[in-house]
């Protein structure tokens, strides 16, 4: 540890006590990883419990000139929470307080360490829920969701995290606390709240989040459709939406995935089907009735084999359990997995599924697909044993080709997991030099010293450059 | 001088030249959202009407990519032919897509469909110094990089000229109808509260002095007149007031639950207003600078804010009120997009002088 870092550690230990500053090898190793296969180098880990403590940590890091990496539950899949070159990890895991539910305004302030699912559980008795529902919702935190602008199956109809975050309290890199957005809509000036959400911890540390709460729909119907070809299933996804129905969720699972999940969850999934679609429609009873008829009609026109409608809440929960434990079920096949979450326009689904099949066959890796078909957000999971260097190499190659295929079809790098380290160097596939430089300038506007989660999101070497140097010249009496 | 670029390259050249010469520019689309922010003296006016190409419309993906000068009416016409719509748009067919986005001027269906910034997937902007910068992505879901589309939405031309936008479209509803009721303002607000509690996702609930308008969207069985209401057209609201000499409109934003109280106070003061119940937005007719401050004071009582969204120069001496949090961040962002400060300088005026 350098003298600077040592001095910072002394100050942080004094602030937080020895129990809440982790410096041992075990902790540093643990915090050098997240849900991805990226490994890093962690200097020390602070576990603050209040906004004031986070602000104090940030001031100290600022004074010491030490890099800071904010961390939620560490379930991210792109290395976004992995410190790459020492520095201070600020874990928000101990900040788990929920404020009072503001029923009249349908919102609630929560601390960033609160787990996603705990929010919906805490407010269900009020007829409300928090709409974004990543598959990892039992483990992932609201702060992490804000960092990655997380999605989930129900984002098809309800929108992603940024549409459900009304405001954030954030500690800036120099330790100043700022509140951006709030209960009153559209405050004057630029939408900085909208930039913070999805900035992957590169602009500050979010210490409180104002969540928009959504009424539970009066009626809901969940259907499982099974097909003998992936192409038919893909075509149905397109046809349902073309028929004017935006389901609450529209998920696809291929045969490999179905086999792994069924063995794990025993939901009665047809394991001989080439692809399953999990379709949920919600709304008023009249809407649900009409939407269900459309879905069934469209599915039959495209050769659906069976339509299983969940008969009660228990069966619905079972079908969702099958979907949401899919990533975990991969462990039954191989010890590890590698995936991308690129997005393609919905119209290219059939093509990209064929391309993924060809790529993974060519590289001789096992691929399981479970994804948000309705918005074209893929999750091709390549199962692998990382102790096998050859298989790991082939998995990496397959992943690389899948990303390039998605972009070639007019798609983009990430739908909900973020860029982190893993997709950072793919950014030039979708953005040119000027685009990336503009993004670097936005980031630098928040973090002039470049100490927040460095080397994430933007490819190495991307700089704000000469533009933006005269940064405080504004006409008299104006603030922008 | 009026500048009329025919395409983005010509526009970029004009911006580079203006940056080199230090000439201040104003930007004009349909001219419907231009009277915002503090007035400033421009050397040249850039008309974006020449950027009027529909770049790509893929009905099956429900996305449309258009240049900034394409009108709302044109987007709605094209989309409508394929059974789709842009429900976040304002009801001003002559407004340009670039203007609507630059002003974040969404429409009355916000309660169900959200603000207009939620419909912008990808944006291409010509910066003050003539760079062409793209942000976001054309897919309906993307977290690839920093969210420039949200940053540009509502930037009032101070970051760049919006040359192209990819919008997310929605299926046209199987049915949509507006309904109205008239009576004492208090009774109308009570009815609004009742409907918001009872209806599942109404599309709009708009209270005015002595009136209530409700828009319902969905399947025909659900789109029926609530008790005591009759068929009506979308309200004209307070927009027409701004057309009168000296008239203007202030948009207040307060926590949604505070809107009934705000509306009651506005009614008591005899002001014209349209309160977008459930969203926290209230548009108020104003005729003098004192009115702007009076409305802002009411909004701030409820921890809200108020900005002038239309009106003569005289009404826009203090268009935004107190400086928002993070102003230094905004300044640095602006400086990087418009290093010479030629795009609409002074538009974001402060109530108090900003410390140097």
Q: Strand order, biggest sheet of chain A?
A: 14-11-13-12-16-17-15
> What order do the SSEs of chain B take from the amino end to the carboxyl end, as H and E?
EHEEEEHEHHEEHEEEHEEEEHEEHEH
Report the CATH C-level class of the largest domain in chain B. Answer: Alpha Beta
Number of helices of chain B: 9
Average per-residue pLDDT of chain B, rounded, comes to 95
Number of helices of chain A: 16
Most extensive interface between two protein chains, with residue counts: A-B, 98 and 93 residues
Structural class of chain B: alpha+beta
Give a short overview:
The complex is a heterodimer of chains A (480) and B (356). Chain A is of the alpha+beta class and 480 residues long.
Topology:
The complex is a heterodimer of chains A (480) and B (356).
Chain A (H helix, E strand, L loop, with lengths): L2 H14 L4 E2 L2 H6 L13 E3 L4 H14 L3 E4 L16 E4 L15 E4 L5 H8 L4 E2 L12 H7 L6 H4 L6 E7 L5 E5 L10 H5 L8 E8 L1 E2 L3 E9 L2 H13 L6 E6 H11 L9 E9 L1 H17 L4 E4 L3 H12 L1 H4 L6 E4 L9 H14 L3 E6 L8 E5 L4 H20 L18 H4 L2 H14 L34
Parallel strand pairs in A: 2-4, 3-4
Antiparallel strand pairs in A: 1-2, 5-9, 6-10, 7-8, 7-9, 11-13, 11-14, 12-13, 12-16, 15-17, 16-17
Chain B lengths: L1 E2 L4 H14 L3 E4 L15 E4 L6 E5 L4 E5 L4 H10 L2 E2 L11 H7 L6 H4 L6 E8 L4 E5 L11 H5 L7 E9 L1 E2 L3 E8 L2 H14 L5 E5 L2 E8 L11 E3 L15 E6 L5 H10 L4 E4 L4 E6 L2 H13 L3 E7 L15 H11 L19
Parallel strand pairs in B: 1-3, 2-3
Antiparallel strand pairs in B: 4-5, 5-9, 6-10, 7-8, 7-9, 11-13, 11-14, 12-13, 12-16, 15-17, 15-18, 16-17
Structure description:
The complex is a heterodimer of chains A (480) and B (356). Chain A contains 16 helices and 17 strands. Chain A has helices spanning 3-16, 25-30, 51-64, 116-123, 142-148, 155-158, 192-196, 230-242, 255-265, 285-301, 313-324, 326-329, 349-362, 389-408, 427-430, 433-446; strands spanning 21-22, 44-46, 68-71, 88-91, 107-110, 128-129, 165-171, 177-181, 205-212, 214-215, 219-227, 249-254, 275-283, 306-309, 336-339, 366-371, 380-384. In chain A, a hairpin with a 5-residue loop joins β7 and β8 (177-181). In chain A, α8 (230-242) packs across α10 (285-301), α8 (230-242) packs antiparallel against α13 and α13 (349-362) runs antiparallel to α14 (389-408). The two termini of chain A are 42 Å apart. Chain B folds into 2 domains: 2-171, Uridine Diphospho-n-acetylenolpyruvylglucosamine Reductase, domain 3; 175-316, no CATH class. Chain B has helices spanning 8-21, 72-81, 97-103, 110-113, 148-152, 185-198, 259-268, 289-301, 327-337; strands spanning 2-3, 25-28, 44-47, 54-58, 63-67, 84-85, 120-127, 132-136, 160-168, 170-171, 175-182, 204-208, 211-218, 230-232, 248-253, 273-276, 281-286, 305-311. The longest helix of chain B is centred in the N-terminal third of the chain and has 14 residues, at 8-21. Chains A and B meet through β8, α7, α8, α10 and α16 of A and β8, α5, β10 and α9 of B.
